[in-house]
Tyrosinase (Seriola dumerili), 503 residues
Amino acid sequence: MLLVVGFPRLCATQEALRTKVCCPPWEGDGSACGASSGRGFCQDVEVSDRSDGPQYPFSGLDDREKWPLVFYNRTCQCAGNFMGFNCADCKFGYFGVNCDQRRESLRRNIFHLSRAERIRLVSYLNLAKQTVSRDYVVVTGTYMEMENGSAPMFADVSVYDVFVWMHYYVSRNALLGGPGNVWTDVDFAHWAPAFLPWHRVYLLHWEHEIRKLTGDRSFTIPYWDWRDAQGCDVCTDELMGGRSTQDPSLLSPGSVFSSWRVLCSRAEDYNNRGVLCDAREEGPLRRNPGNQDRNMVERLPTSAEVEFTLSLTNYDTGAMDRNANMSFRNTLEGFGDPQTGLGNSSRMGMHAALHLFMNGSMSSVQGSANDPIFLLHHAFVDSIYEQWLRRHRPSPSQYPDSNAPIGHNSEYHMVPFLPLHRNREYFISSKDLGYEYSYLLDASKFTSEWSFSISIFHLNLRKSITVFHYLYRGSSWLPAKRQPLIWSNDTVESSHRNYQTTM
């Protein structure tokens, strides 16, 4: 089954680009988008005409504008619970031949995984890094450089590196023409409201690709709970790789990740040349946690800062960019002060603090996904987003319809996903998307499970001791030690000022 997260090979052809049609057949019946079986249909892409914010004052210069119209204006639009660039797969949270069965996955704390599960995680990551993607390619030139589709410019990369490229492509600077002529105040997945929905979809697709590659349908991305951490707890050779004794910016040779090579990590070089990343290897993965610029990041985020961030009642505010005050999104992303909520902070907090703390490949927005810690980090960020959604239960109208920075309005299609996803579609609970976090399980479920264990204890003492030991030593569904008060109704008054974005 194919679920596209970039450019499908079947649509990376001269014919597809020149006709602007990406409607491959479903193998089940041979018809485009599985139309003969009612799975989907090849239809015109509809894009929103709502106004964008002033941060990007151009039109018609960047391939990501009004995604995906520069490349395709007809794509598969799937019916019911079907999904995929040819409607061959199921929507997140569904499975089965007819995609009519529900499934809920559980994302767990990485430190609650057994040794065998940790080994499996590392081996899956390495397999994805070493396996060339059969289904997807990445674009290495602009549509204009491709002579409007006549000369396709794509490259083969690994399954893992498809996602590295995606994160680069969505956050790259806009090329305005010629060396050094770029616009830096633009990002289709960061610095604005779509930051959290976009990364939620990104992780869901990544999880799906690992399942498809390995055949392990139970795989889920673990999270790293970095609240109050004094250092990089996951930086061990058993997990994400320890520090090299020869060079503190490199990984220990005892880790498989020390042999990894990065791509799309040289933003300044691309800008100087006025080109896109060509997807070639650019050197080893680098990391030097704890040796970051202390003027930018003093330490990792605390539990109190997470709780303050969760108390903010407004999803986003003002111009909905890095200057937003008392904005949950901006504070969680790291540009709002996690103690005051004021935007455009001189120091980075929350999500951004972790990236800069790593002081290497992770500290570059465009190249950060090269480091596998990215996945563990963003899974935890996503869990904080989930806590906020459950605590405040926002109406869909809290997500802006217009005047957000380009790419971030509610009906904008997420760059560079195919099938198409709109931002607002992921302003919903993870439960609706088929997954849960182990430390956010409902109190009622925990209570019933605990009561069941106690009843077993009274029925059979010897058996109950085994169950009791399992519950406390082997189970991943018990709340974490630092269980946040996700059922609290406490809030902070949200009094923000209106302001204009500094250009």
User: Anything to note?
Assistant: The first strand starts at residue 7 and ends at 8. Residues 1-5, 443-503 have pLDDT under 50 and may be disordered.
